[in-house]
Design goal:
The chain is of the alpha+beta class. About 15% of the residues lie in helices and about 25% in strands. The protein contains one helix and three strands. Strands 1-2-3 form a three-stranded antiparallel β-sheet, with no helix packed on it. Strand 1 and strand 2 form a beta hairpin. The longest helix has 10 residues. The radius of gyration is 13 Å and the shape is globular. The relative contact order is 0.16.
Length: about 70
């Protein structure tokens, strides 16, 4: 999960948020906060993270852009 904010947004449904947070803590979900996607390839993504650029092996991407998407992306 790649998110530009520093934490899961407070408006996430109250019954969903604990499940996601627990899966992040257990390592079932890798979360990259304060980060953004720079590139998407056939089997990888490149992220801009606080630790610098990271290239991750990846099978697919869900572009969950929110209610008002930024269409330039």
């Amino acid at each position: 999960m790649v998110y530009r904010g520093s934490q899961i947004h407070p408006n996430v449904k109250y019954w969903v948020r604990p499940d996601v947070e627990n899966r992040i803590k257990s390592g079932e979900i890798s979360a990259y906060f304060n980060s953004r996607v720079l590139d998407i390839g056939p089997d990888f993504v490149v992220l801009d993270t606080p630790r610098g650029s990271q290239r991750l092996r990846n099978d697919f991407v869900f572009a969950l852009t929110g209610y008002h998407p930024t269409t330039i992306f």
